[in-house]
Every structure is written in structure tokens, then in C-alpha cells.
Amino acid sequence: MDSTTLAEVSGNVATIGYGLGTLGPGIGLGILIGKALEGIARQPEVAGQLRTTMFIGVAFVEVLALLGLVTGFLF
């Protein structure tokens, strides 16, 4: 194998790796938002606090997903 073929294989593997890496944040967002909505349904009076906490959690999960994307471009 020459160096061009190796570069193509590693690029394809990196793409598949990032594709699999998006499963974690996707599952995390689903659980996070679902539990926040469940909490709001159970106690509507704390909806504001739960919504604020949910958005902070969503921001952290999205940062992890973007960090994975940037890491894929760097390496």
C-alpha cells in the first residue's frame, strides 16, 4: 500500500468514528430533554428552574459533540 491509500482509509475510518460518536450526545439529549419534560409535567411550578437547568445541560452536551467534530478535523 502506498501513502495515498493509507490516508484515504484513515479518513474514512475517522468519518465512521465521528458518526458513531454522535450517538452519545444524541442519546444524552433525548434523555435530558425527556426527563426535564417529565419533571415539568409532575411539578409545573418549578418549570422555570427545570428549563434553565435543562438548557445548561443541553449546552454542555452540544459542546461535547462539537469538540468531537473539531477533534476529527484536527487529527
From TrEMBL:
The chain crosses the membrane at residues 12-33, 54-74. Belongs to the ATPase C chain family. InterPro entries: ATP_synth_csu_bac/chlpt, ATP_synth_F0_csu, ATP_synth_F0_csu_DDCD_BS, ATP_synth_F0_csu_sf, ATPase_proteolipid_c-like_dom, F/V-ATP_Csub_sf. CDD domains: ATP-synt_Fo_c. Key component of the F(0) channel; it plays a direct role in translocation across the membrane. A homomeric c-ring of between 10-14 subunits forms the central stalk rotor element with the F(1) delta and epsilon subunits. Residues 14-75 form the V-ATPase proteolipid subunit C-like domain. This is ATP synthase subunit c. Keywords: ATP synthesis, Cell membrane, CF(0), Hydrogen ion transport, Hydrolase, Ion transport, Lipid-binding, Membrane, Transmembrane, Transmembrane helix, Transport. Gene3D superfamilies: F1F0 ATP synthase subunit C (1.20.20.10).
